[in-house]
Amino acid sequence: MEFSDEPYKSLIPSLLQGAWDLHIHTIPSQFPRALDDVETVQQASAAGMAGVVIKSHYEPTGARARLVNRRKVGTARAFGTVVLNWPVGGLNPYAVWSALEMGAGLVFMPTRDAANCLRDPALQKNFFERPGISILDADGALRPEVLTIMEIVKKYGAALATGHISPEESLVLCREGCRRGVRMVLTHPEWYRTAMAPEQQRELAREGTFIEKCWYNLEDGSCSPAEMACHIRMIGAEHCFLSTDRGQKGREFPVDAMKHFIAVLLEEGITETELRQMLCRTPRRVLGLDA
Questions:
Q1: Residue 78 contacts residue 43 (beta carbons within 8 Å)
Q2: Which of these, 44, 43, 95, 27, lies nearest to 247 by C-alpha position?
Q3: Tens-place pLDDT, residues 49-103
Q4: Which runs of consecutive H residues, i.e. helices, occur in 4-51?
Q5: For residue 120, what pLDDT is reported?
Q6: How far apart are CA 80 and CA 20, in angstroms?
Q7: SS3 letters across 50-68
Q8: What is the DSSP letter of 163?
Q9: What is the distance of C-alpha 150 from the center of its chain?
Q10: What percent of the chain has pLDDT over 70?
């Protein structure tokens, strides 16, 4: 995708003040990454951002975030996550409890080990052979351990995100989570593996789910800038937050990716007010900082 930040270079720095990026992949990782936790927080701090969420597909990052915050490597704050793939036991309530005790702010349903994701033969070979994880039983109902996980997430005041499960699973999960008073996040619904119709995104948002809008999905061609802007308007900026899903080695750094994202959305007519909502205010609500 061709774009230029140039027309908005004077505006972007002000929009980054107090911003959050709730989806960044860092070193250490089982996959090639560009920055470690400290470098990520330092770069976010230099840009005036309020904080970041560091994510690993295969290990909890709450303790790492706590250590970075304790060392005061920058003014930005780090939050950790746990992703319920096989290395933490899959849909494992004990792993959720442990991660939240260590300071994680977000719990993700399976990503690379989700049954929906393992339909891709490339991912089947990425790790050793393993079964895909579904959150639903044979009757299409949420598995009991998922309900237990919801209760733990609610008790700790964290948020529960859909990860890479199927759109059908995400609908069931988000609706039940909202019904139970859990803060729910629909993860990158423009991505080709987890794509959900904007009308369904809007329905979930109205029921209380926060909707992620992700730079990666624009850059990889899963969604056009016009479509992304249209979805934001349809759902409402108050229900959306922007993330980069960056950190991959060989790609732009997360702060630079967020600058590109802002420029592209401004070009599509998304207003400064809407951007500040999605960069600053909605992420704080996702993390429970305004509770």
A1: no
A2: 27
A3: 999 999 999 999 999 999 999 999 999 999 999 999 999 999 999 999 999 999 9
A4: 12-16, 37-46
A5: 75
A6: 13
A7: CEEEEECCCCCCHHHHHHH
A8: T
A9: 17
A10: 96
Using alpha carbons, select from 222, 209, 217 the residue that is nearest to residue 177: 209
What pLDDT digit, counting tens, does each position of 23-54 carry?
999 999 999 999 999 999 999 999 999 999 99
* 1 has pLDDT over 70: no
| Mean per-residue pLDDT of the chain | 95
Q: Is 158 helix (H, G, I), strand (E, B) or coil?
A: coil
Tokens representing 32 are 């090639």
How would DSSP label each residue in 75-100?
SSEEEEEEE-SGGGTSS-HHHHHHHH
Q: Which is nearest to 212 in space by CA: 286, 109, 149, 272?
A: 286
Hey, what long-range contacts does 270-276 have (CB within 8 A, 24 or more apart)?
Answer: 270/229, 270/232, 270/233, 270/237, 272/11, 272/15, 273/237, 274/232, 274/237, 275/15, 275/237, 275/242, 276/15
The structure tokens 């400290």 sit at 38
Distance CA 23, CA 53 (A): 6
Closest among 174, 164, 173 to 214, alpha carbons compared = 164
Residue 286: predicted pLDDT:
98
Give the three-state DSSP class for 157: coil
The model's pTM:
0.95
Residues 232/273, Cβ–Cβ less than 8 Å: no
Three-state DSSP state, 148 = helix
